[in-house]
Amino acid sequence: MTSPVQLIAPQRHADARGWFTEVYSEAAFKARGVTCRFVQDNHSLSVPAFTLRGLHFQVPPHGQAKLVRCTRGRIYDVVVDIRAGSPTFGHWVGAELTATEGTQMFMPVGFAHAFLTLEANCEVMYKVSDIYAPTCDGGIRWNTVGIDWPLPTGIVPELSAKDAGLPALANFNSPFPYDGHPLEPFGRG
Length: 189
Hints:
The chain is mostly beta strands. The protein has a single domain, classed as Jelly Rolls (Sandwich), CATH 2.60.120. The protein contains two helices and twelve strands, in the order βββαβββββββββα. The protein has helices spanning 26-31, 161-164, and strands spanning 6-8, 12-15, 18-21, 40-46, 52-58, 66-72, 74-81, 92-98, 104-107, 111-117, 122-128, 137-139. The strands form three sheets. Strands 1-9-6-11-4 form a five-stranded antiparallel β-sheet, with no helix packed on it. A five-stranded antiparallel β-sheet has the order 8-7-10-5-12, with no helix packed on it. Strand 2 and strand 3 form a beta hairpin. The model has no long low-confidence stretch (mean pLDDT 95).
């Protein structure tokens, strides 16, 4: 069974000029079990190191699957299972994504997403499977899930006012159904 959350390392073809990679191929992703259609690309810049964005999601009818990659710098990317009835509800997985390596993280609908920048001036690009719908926008406060964030001692992450005011996981009533695929630790692929 394919894990619902996947780390994907596209192959890079390098020579003296640099490298080339396919970051997304519908056929290759379908072979991995990723069958959603992406409809929008997003791009963010976080100037200060240790900027935290998330934990974000959209509720139905505009739930979003995401394919995330770091295009400048390094981030710690995190996904939390928020599907009602899931035996791994509230569990999380995280991985460092870097522009140098090009590894991406895919998460289906029903997972909250966040990232922490590990250096200044990080850029992140991600594909989403549905449009941004402000009325469906949701989130969970970053420090209510038990995530082991790689923050130096004494450092508090840079947060938006919106993210700082998100509710705790314990107060979240999930509209996402469990599909029979628990969150599992992932390997590179």
